[in-house]
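Thanks for the sequence, V.! I ran Anion-transporting ArsA/GET3 family ATPase right away. Repeating your input here for the record:
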Amino acid sequence: MTARDTDWDGVRLHVVTGKGGTGKTTVAASLALALASGGRKVLLVEVEGRQGIAQIFDLPPLPYEERKIAVAPGGGDVYALAIDPEEAMLEYLEMFYGMRRAGRTLAKMGIVDFATTVAPGFRDVLVTGKTTEAVRRRGKNGRRVYDAVVLDAPPTGRVSRFLNVTQEVAGLARVGPIKNHSDLVSGVVKSPETAVHFVTVLEEMPVQETLDGIAELRSAGLPAGGIFINMVRESLLPQATLDSAVKGGFDAGEIALGLKAAGLADGAGDASAVADALAAEVVEHARRTELEKTERAALMTAALPRYELPLLADGVDLTGLYELAETIGAKGAA
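Predicted structure:
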């Protein structure tokens, strides 16, 4: 494996959260590829049952097992696991009570689903427990099985409760296997080996939800990581032009003259109509750029590392994932 300069040296569990529509799963998948580059082995975990990992890697639905799904740049493997809470509970029953066969009978009766519904904190312990077990797991040679684990976590509004398992199960059990299991999970989640990263776009609501999520995370004593600013569009106009457009001083007549000089308009009326439409686009672009500048400044108040990822013109496909992974690595996030 090649040495690398990363902002998250020592972190082995990367939790990725974000408001819906910000590209949370895309960033999680790209981060896993970046972390695996250079000969590493990384596990990408999904907990929401949406089969988002399968979709983004163009694969059939993933079963409840760890399987290799991609080769990282420069060598290295990405494995994936779509956690099923029912299967996780059966593993739990076998691990602590030796009841896997009886557990399957309970599952058929619907008791397992009932238990995880009336006690959502227990459900979260099961899925986070499976993830943290992968972080701790060692092979026969005594080495860690995975160099890093990336968890595609629930959205920002729920991530603190999802990770704060000790508090969530406090009302369920104060002693015994459930309490011991939650303490073990919490020990990993709240350790320096874990970082919770936020994905956002430069819009008011996602940025505010990100800031609220970071504050809630810190209040719960959970480790805030970095902020991935996704789908960033570069401005193609000089700052002076943008400033002029925002102030309403942009001259559409200059565009009309340019269009006629370039032979792109047949007559004066034609050039004027096209110029007005283009001028409106410039003003809209300038206003959006100004708003994005404001949102960037708001994100700076969180005092966390920030990583800007470009908007992919052709959309997110496998090629796009590798492009984003390269960007993530180049910016020092992996």
